[in-house]
Amino acid sequence: MCRSPRSASVLALTESRLGYPLFERARGKLLPTPEARRLHAEVEQVYGGVRRVNALATALRREGAGTLRVVASAAFAQQLVPRALAHLRAGGVPTRIDYRSVTFDELVGCFLSGRADVGVSMVPAGHASVASTRLGRQPLVCILPQDHPLAGRAVLTPEDFAGTAWIGYPQGTPLGRAVARFFGERAVHCAPAIEVHSSVTACAFVQQGLGPALVDAWSVTPAMRPALAVRTVSPEVGLEIWATHSSLVPLPLAGRRFLTSVGEVLRDAAPHDACAQG
After folding, report:
1. How many CA atoms lie within 13 A of 57 on its CB side?
2. What are phi and psi of 230, to 5 degrees?
3. How much is the mean pLDDT over the chain?
4. Largest CB tally within 10 Å, which of 121, 147, 164, 234?
5. Average pLDDT in the 223-252 region?
6. What integer pLDDT is reported at residue 270 of this predicted model?
7. Helix, strand, coil share (%) of the chain residues, nearest 5
8. Where does the chain show beta strands of DSSP type E?
């Protein structure tokens, strides 16, 4: 076995520091001693660990820390969340997503129980252990069956709902409060004929001809358009869009990237021209 003068000096220095030989000469060859074999096995484990750490660090930079658990109001599952996830994937981030729809009163519990990393909702969380950041605002619009008498109007006002069977929401819910702002003092005279608990359900009911409904614009998908007339309302009423995550632990990298994608979608695209006349 040939050794350069430099490697021979390094080996000699190492053996001097250790106090025992690492190689022995036998039949003209250098053979590792049992001590050298033990050291080599340990060094291999150390190098293997370093390689695994480097691979994990690269994966975390690319994908984040495993599955990202996303919760959102059902309305945002129609367009906003899917568009944000598509934007995330288009950016080369193959993060695995666990998504579930939740009501506004379930939101805080998801974070306190550790079942969610990030959420998108119509209201801030209102809890000391959950942080909320306003992302934007969306308009309230009126959707109607195409053949409804009110579909011939470009803009609908509270007075238009007098004597009309329409679809509303429970008081105290985000949509219920938004509808109450729209009607103002006339709310007591314009009670809904049907009450539902999400704008997604309201859209389905309107498509079945059960009457008009006031919904958030992001809940109206392109597939619904042939069966619906979508109208602006006056006075204009908006619903806020909030990002939510635990304030007790840092938001995962994938969660930060997801919220960046939500922001890009909100800045770059309207909810498929939901306010346009149909």
Report:
1. 6
2. -115, 125
3. 85
4. 121
5. 93
6. 62
7. 45, 25, 35
8. 23-26, 29-32, 68-72, 97-101, 118-121, 130-145, 155-156, 167-168, 194-195, 213-216, 228-233, 238-246
Cα dihedral 187, 190, 196, 200 sign: negative
Spatial contact of 98 and 68, defined as CB atoms under 8 Å apart: yes
Who contacts 49 (Cβ-Cβ below 8 Å, separation ≥6)?
none
Q: How many residues does the chain have?
A: 278
Q: For residue 267, give the nearest of 136, 91, 83, 133 by alpha carbon.
A: 136
- Six-digit token string for 182: 């729209």
Structure tokens at 160: 């238009």
Instruction: Output DSSP code: residue 238.
Output: E
CA torsion, ordered 98, 103, 104, 106, to nearest 10 deg:
-70
Tell me the pTM.
0.72
How far separated are the first and last CA of the chain, in Å rounded? 85
By mean pLDDT, which of 3-7, 99-103, 167-171 is the weakest? 3-7
Alpha-carbon span 275 to 96, nearest angstrom: 33
Spatial CA neighbour of 237 closest among 173, 157, 170:
157
Q: Which two tokens stand for residue 255?
A: 């969660």
Cβ(240)–Cβ(174) under 8 Å?
no
> 67, 86, 73: which is closest to 242 by C-alpha?
73
